[in-house]
Amino acid sequence: MTRFSDRVAFLTGVASGVGRSTAIRLAREGASVFGVDIDEQGMDETRSTIAGSDGSMTTKVVDVADVDQIKTAVADCVTRFGGIDIVGNIAGIAKQHHVADVSEAEWDLLNAVNLKGPFFIAQATMPHLIERSGTLINIASNAGLMGQAYTVPYCATKGGIVNLTRALAMEFVKTGVRVNAIAPGGIDTPLVHNFELAEDIDFNLMQNHIGYRTPSSPDQIAAFFAFLASDEAANIHGSILSADGGLTAA
Ligand SMILES: NC(=O)c1ccc[n+]([C@@H]2O[C@H](COP(=O)([O-])OP(=O)(O)OC[C@H]3O[C@@H](n4cnc5c(N)ncnc54)[C@H](O)[C@@H]3O)[C@@H](O)[C@H]2O)c1
Q1: b vs e for 51-63, b when ≥16 Cβ sit within 10 Å of the residue's Cβ?
Q2: For residue 15, how far is its CA from the centre of ligand 1 (angstroms)?
Q3: If you average pLDDT over residues 23-31, what whole number do you get?
Q4: DSSP 132-144
Q5: Signed CA dihedral, 24, 156, 100, 247: sign only
Q6: Could you report the per-residue pLDDT of 177-236, keeping only the tens digit for each?
Q7: Residue 13 C-alpha to ligand 1 middle, in angstroms?
Q8: Residue 244 Cβ contacting ligand 1 at under 6 Å
Q9: Catalytic: 150?
Q10: Which residue in 78, 98, 181, 227 has the most C-beta neighbors within 10 A?
Q11: Domain that holds residue 20
Q12: What is the C-alpha separation between 139 and 154, in angstroms, rounded?
């Protein structure tokens, strides 16, 4: 398939998990991918995988919490490829903790990576997306749609992304740009593998966000992303689309 052969994709979080799978998927379908992440080695691994299947990805080490780095990366992408058609705000961090244990630094970091970064990437890329009637996709979470114990700051950032998506969709509704979010449930990635659960948590409180089905694979979320970024999704705008095995259906 070459749904994206004439498209440029600016993706964050391409060193791991969903971002890596999405970069691979879009490149395989012909996109010119400009990938950013703080993890250079992880990006190298993703780039090698893509190169092994005839695609290509340009990478740049970027901390999405740093607005100057975002602006430089967007400018570099436009210089390299001439424009931007697809933006994926995929990079994210999570932490489990009791409310009482959350430090100001942890709160600030979660907000900077999960919410501030996506906003300023939207701000920096929007003129380019308008020029090409492109599309912006934010990776939200079931945690932005439901209350989840022991991840209160993470939930707040993901709730923020949900309404950031809707508000952007409204501000740019008269352009050709489409803005949507995918809200996955659990995905089998390092983000969840690295969760450190406090010993004294009440597991009863967690059943509603563990759900009943197995986690998604990052490739499944990437496939959904590719559909949403494609012309086949031309009428989908301002939507928060769950991919969570029924987690938020109850
Ligand atoms: N894994 C899950 O269960 C799950 C569920 C719902 C939503 N999500 C969301 O999916 C997205 C992708 O997560 P994942 O599961 O693939 O995790 P992951 O840890 O595998 O990948 C996250 C990537 O973001 C990068 N990153 C972290 N901080 C960064 C920063 N400051 N600047 C640039 N890059 C940075 C990491 O280096 C990593 O490559 C996140 O937004 C996450 O919140 C994940």
Answers
A1: eeeebebebbebb
A2: 9
A3: 97
A4: HT-EEEEE--GGG
A5: negative
A6: 999 999 999 999 999 888 888 778 998 998 888 889 999 999 999 999 999 999 999 999
A7: 6
A8: no
A9: no
A10: 181
A11: 8-243
A12: 13
- What's the DSSP call for residue 115? I
Secondary-structure percent of the chain, ordered helix, strand, coil, rounded to 5? 50, 15, 35
Check 154, 172, 224, 225 and give the catalytic one. 154
Q: In whole angstroms, give the CA distance from residue 57 to residue 151.
A: 34
Q: Is 94 in the pocket of ligand 1 (CB under 6 A)?
A: yes
Overall domain count for the chain: 1
d(CA 79, CA 61) in angstroms, rounded, equals 17
Task: Give the position, in ligand 1's atom list, of the atom nearest the Cα of 112.
Answer: 31
Instruction: Return the structure tokens found at 212.
Output: 């009943």
The atom number, within ligand 1, closest to the CA of 42 reads 39
Give pTM, 2 decimals: 0.98
**114 located within any domain:** yes
SS3 50: helix
CATH of the domain at 69: 3.40.50.720
What's the 162 CA to ligand 1 centre distance in angstroms?
16
Q: Examine residue 1 and state whether it is found in any structural domain, yes or no.
A: no
- Ligand 1 pocket, residue 18 CB under 6 Å: yes
Q: Looking at the domain assignment, is residue 248 inside a domain?
A: no
For range 121-141, the mean pLDDT: 98
Percent share of the chain, pLDDT over 70: 100
| The pair of three-digit structure tokens given for residue 100, joined into one six-digit string | 């009482």
Does the CB atom of residue 189 touch ligand 1 within 6 A? yes
Ligand 1, closest atom to CA 184?
A: 6
